[in-house]
Specification:
By secondary structure, the protein is mostly helical. It is rod-shaped and about 105 Å long. It is built from three helices and no strands. This is Septum formation initiator family protein.
Length: 99
């Protein structure tokens, strides 16, 4: 009788740990979800790093002593709607964004 109870107890203990290994809070199911989330975060990080690189380039182009006049003109046209005299301006419903 004791050996059957021991076997039942051991079986229940193995089932308990097996359940938590697969379906628990830190089990294999959660691990696969974490891997998908990690991939999403890596894509987001790549986009942010691209934005940072672009912004660093813009900062370098606007640094006193090395100002890029073409970039300043593009910014003035985009942000301030700057135009030269005698230029023909075509108005559209969509606003273009200078990158």
């Amino acid at each position: 009788m004791v050996s059957r109870l021991e076997a039942l107890g051991l079986s229940l203990l193995v089932l308990y740990f097996a359940y938590h290994a697969f379906a628990g809070e830190k089990g294999l199911g959660r691990w696969s979800d974490a891997q998908l989330e990690l991939e999403d975060r890596k894509v987001e990080l790549a986009k942010i790093e691209t934005d940072i690189s672009r912004l660093r380039t813009d900062i370098r182009r606007l640094t006193p002593g090395s100002v890029d006049p073409d970039f300043v003109e593009a910014l003035a046209r985009d942000k301030l709607a700057f135009v030269y005299p005698n230029e023909i301006v075509l108005m559209t419903s969509e606003r273009s964004v200078a990158n």
